[in-house]
Amino acid sequence: MPHPYVLLSAAVSLDGYLDDTGPERLLLSGPADFDRVDEVRASVDAILVGAGTIRADNPRLLVNSPERRAARVAGGRAEYPLKVTVSGSGDLDPAARFWHTGGEKVLYTTDEGAGRAHALGLAADVVPLGAELDWRLLLEHLHAERGVRRLMVEGGGTIHTQLLTEGLADELQLVLAPLFVGDVEAPRLFGPGSYQGGRLRLVESRPIGDVVLMRYEPTAPGTGPLPSAADHHWLALACELAAECPPSETAFSVGAVVVAADGTELARGHSREGTDPVVHAEEAALAKTDPTDPRLAGATVYSSLEPCARRASRPAPCARLVLDAGVRRVVTAWREPDTFVAGADGSAVLAAGGATVVVLPEHEDRAKAPNGHLLGR
Question: Is there a contact between 295 and 342 (Cβ–Cβ < 8 Å)?
Answer without folding.
Answer: no
